[in-house]
Design goal:
Blueprint (H helix, E strand, L loop, with lengths): L5 H25 L9 E3 L5 H8 L12 H5 L5 E3 L2 E3 L15 H32 L6
Antiparallel strand pairs: 1-3, 2-3
Helix pairs in contact: 1-4
């Protein structure tokens, strides 16, 4: 990833994050009737990785151990592999499942809008590169 310009690395990182988020939302929807299932989400990408790849700047990701007070204030413990329990839960069913179809569909719409925005940024960057190289930007 270090051979690419930073803007393209950032676009790639965000699109991969959105793809993973879409998969997690689909899993939430598939488990909407599973007793005890807790809705999950994907943590935001670590853009410190871009800085490290671009100029050798090293930024360590902080490690925070959640206290009871932090959890009461809405902090969520990571599930692993970038997954976290969803903190934007509107209701929990009597069986312990907290997946709300409406919330998940709204999140899916946001993923689609964000992916479209990243695609547009990518296209505009390609036009700028073609123009800089003297080729027809189209």
């Amino acid at each position: 990833m270090s051979d690419m310009p930073t803007i393209f690395s950032a676009i790639q990182m965000r699109m991969q994050n959105l793809s993973q988020r879409q998969q997690v939302i689909a899993q939430n929807l598939a488990n909407s009737e599973t007793p005890g299932y807790k809705s999950r989400d994907v943590s935001e990408p670590n853009f410190g990785d871009l800085l490290q790849g671009a100029g050798g700047i090293s930024i360590a990701r902080p490690r925070v151990e959640l206290t009871g007070t932090m959890k009461n204030l809405g902090a969520v413990q990571p599930v692993g592999n970038g997954l976290v329990f969803d903190k934007d839960v509107t209701e929990t069913k009597p069986d312990g499942n907290n997946v709300t179809l409406e919330d998940q569909l709204l999140k899916m719409g946001k993923v689609q809008a964000d992916f479209s925005a990243m695609t547009n940024i990518y296209r505009k960057q390609m036009v700028l590169l073609k123009t800089a190289l003297g080729k027809a930007g189209g």
